[in-house]
Amino acid sequence: MGLKRRQKEEQTKKGRQENMYEIDTKLEELERAGTPVRTALIGAGQMGKDIVAQIEGMKGIECDIVVDVRADIAAEAYRQAGCQCEVVEVHTAGEAEKAIAAGKKAVTTDYKTAVQAAQITNVIDATGSPEMGARVTMECILHKKHIVMMNVECDITIGPLLRRLCEQAGIVYSLTAGDEPGSIIEVYRFAKALGFEVVAAGKGKNNPLDIYADPGMHKWKEKAAKRDMNPRMLIEFVDGSKTMIEMCAVSNATGLKPDVRGMHGPECNVKDLARVFSLKEQGGILDQTGVVDYGIGDINPGVFVIVTTDNKRIIDGLVQRDMGEGPNYLLYRPYHLCSIETPITAVQAAVYGESTAHPMDHLTSECITVAKKDLKAGEVLDAIGEYCYRASIELAETAREGNMLPVGLAKGAVLKRDIKKDEVITYDMVELDNRSVLLQLRRMQDEMTGC
To answer: Where is the SAF domain (predicted)?
Structure first.
């Protein structure tokens, strides 16, 4: 019994030591052992290329396969990363496996080839397409590969269902570190762990707000070209859709709610945050606490969580530590590095079985679809960040009662009637494509969760 007890104690001690590893130490260990975290990337746009470049400079993790609609775009990601390995185009999982075993990098136009490759443990979806996100994640579930969901547009549409299915398959479903939802939730978890009451959580908006912006406008085309961005992607930020989508993801991961439809979005700076995001009777803008929101000022690229406490001892301690006189206090992370931080989430999933952030089992908020201009019956709705519509955040219960169309389902919908500028588009106004995997999963989620 004594020997068995000592062996058990040694195993427990070893487990504790494993949990105490800092992530950099763990990555060095994986590098020495020749057992890196092996990832596949779906989508080699601006963000995807950043991920490949970042992984190239890291230990203990490899990006073995890159997928894009064109193989040359995928190969360009490796070239820009400074990769010295041979890059080969593959068409089957078997070809991909042989390339990886030979120390080569693989590119392909078929996401299934990447997900099915035996060596791959993590898949990163950087497509930004809700439909593609649904298809990629279902393939990951089938082949038991952790999914790093950079595709927030997909997450806010069917995230609760995807997370549940992933957990049942024994894999991790996670939003990404570095994107604003992941960065906000990092601070939120810190605050909740310490027992603070969260008054508000949010971000600084990183572009001027123009809710009617479209990618055909000269000033935005010019700005997109200077930043080497797809104009559609820039407009998703400018018209506020991306902010609504990101804060909806935070809401669904935490239970925090928008105080009003579309949130307040006040003009304010970092020094003002704790005062502005307080209750009206305290001189702020809020009707309730426990909200998601954003500010326009010098906050970007930071994220924030406003907290409060009624413990006199803690209040005194916060005052002594120059956190202000209260009643609210600012926790501020002055940066988010977007895709540059994404490899950390892949490691968390593969090594520790943890997510950076994930939705709860139901929706708290919904991103609804609002017309940017007058629309005519028979028109086919385009993508988020284009000409037809923008996203706005609303309580999920309110959206459900109003039959409001989730913005993730809008692309490709055919209008049944004319719609006025600024009108909320509802399910009964559109004909949806029943072939959509995203739509089928959303209907399943609605049936299972009631929201």
So the answer is: 366-431
Domain ranges of the chain: 36-177, 181-205+240-336, 365-449
Cα distance between the two ends of the chain? 53
Q: Under DSSP, is residue 293 helix (H, G, I), strand (E, B) or coil?
A: strand
What is the rounded CA–CA span in Å between residue 214 and residue 219? 10
Helices (H), 144-208: 152-169, 180-193
Give the number of C-alpha atoms closer than 13 A to the C-alpha of residue 163, restricted to the C-beta side: 24
- How far is 285 from 279, CA to CA, in rounded Å? 6
Q: Yes or no: say if 331 and 185 are a contact pair by the CB < 8 Å rule.
A: no
Assign 314 to helix, strand or coil: helix
Domain 365-449 CATH (choose: 3.30.200.20, 3.40.50.720, 3.90.1210.10, 3.40.50.150): 3.90.1210.10
At 181, list the tokens.
């939802």
In DSSP terms, 291 is beta-bridged to: 200, 257
Amino acid occupying residue 115: V
Say how far apart CA 203 and CA 381 lie, in whole Å.
Answer: 29
* pTM (global) more than 0.90: yes
What tokens appear for 317 in the block? 């301690």
The per-residue pLDDT for range 120-148, each reduced to its tens digit, is 999 999 999 999 999 999 999 999 999 99
Task: Tell me whether strands 197-204 and 173-175 are parallel, antiparallel or unpaired.
Answer: unpaired
Contacts of 210 (CB under 8 A, 6+ apart): 238, 239
